[in-house]
Write a structure and sequence with these properties.
Length: about 300
């Protein structure tokens, strides 16, 4: 969606950033009557944090790895966090960050662990390590993923990359539309302007519908085609891993994530090295030679 990030309360005059609060309600007086005072900007993220301290305490007090009560609450909190997250923040394409990835994997790992008939110590330790570090975006290294839980790593990659790809493609649409916009159409014509600039900036219903995203470097429109092509190749890899239920080598799953992040870097900066890196990682993520069980 596109929002006016800088808000002003019509009741008390307080100004604040929607990007920081995620609400049009005034943080000072609570009034919902506010207006945007800047241009509309592409934005999909929400100011939400992941705090699993209460769950770690509950798990720590439990005689088993998964406490009889509390698992549903943990999964609910993880889903809510992932649901609120997005990757366009105030007109800029963000990274596919570690906290989001860890939350995704922990959600998948809990479900996977519950289905195990006889969990090994390595499985328990891995699950607890995910829970311990997820808030800070820390996940166990690729080589530490136990075989019994590798489908959790794979499905976390599938869901995370799909979410990131969706926002990145929307971002590219905005970028392309902005590049095609004729600057003359947005030029100020003071001789025919009956409305003051102050009135325009405070009018939330004005015709300021020009897509607004921000990137670094020159000729950003030249990145749109190569990035879309690469994201399409990445989609094919993700579809294959999904068909295998995520049961693929952890290195292949992680390559999907790294490829998506590298493509984001290319879109943000135009760095051709990032695009080349992404293409190589997509090749590394190939699982076409695996049998139907993902082995």
């Amino acid at each position: 969606m596109k929002v006016r990030g800088e808000r002003e309360c019509q009741s008390c005059g307080t100004r604040w950033s929607y990007y920081e609060t995620g609400s049009v309600a005034c943080p000072s007086c609570g009034d919902f009557r506010s207006v945007g005072v800047d241009a509309r900007t592409a934005h999909t993220d929400a100011p939400v944090s992941l705090d699993l301290a209460a769950h770690r305490e509950r798990f720590g007090d439990a005689p088993e790895t998964l406490p009889r009560s509390g698992v549903d609450e943990l999964q609910s909190d993880l889903r809510e966090y992932c649901r609120k997250r997005g990757f366009i923040d105030g007109g800029r394409l963000a990274r596919l960050d570690g906290t989001y990835l860890a939350a995704r994997e922990l959600l998948e790992a809990v479900d996977c662990f519950e289905r195990l008939r006889d969990p090994a110590d390595a499985d328990r330790e891995y699950l607890l390590a995910l829970l311990a570090g997820a808030d800070d975006g820390d996940r166990p290294a690729t080589k530490e993923v136990p075989t019994a839980l590798r489908e959790a790593r794979g499905m976390a990659a599938v869901r995370a990359v799909r979410a990131y790809r969706s926002d990145a493609l929307d971002f590219l649409d905005e970028l392309e539309a902005g590049a095609e916009q004729d600057p003359a159409e947005n030029s100020d014509d003071e001789s025919s302007d009956d409305e003051s600039s102050d009135d325009k900036s405070n009018n939330d219903e004005s015709n300021d519908d020009t897509p607004t995203v921000t990137v670094d470097g020159e000729a950003p429109e030249a990145r749109v085609g190569p990035a879309r092509d690469a994201f399409e190749r990445l989609r094919d890899r993700v579809t294959r891993v999904d068909a295998l239920g995520g049961d693929v080598p952890p290195a292949a799953a992680d390559a999907l994530v790294e490829a998506a992040d590298a493509l984001g870097e290319y879109v943000r900066t135009g760095d051709e090295t990032a695009l080349t890196n992404a293409e190589s990682l997509i090749d590394e993520a190939s699982v076409d030679d695996l049998d139907p069980t993902g082995r």
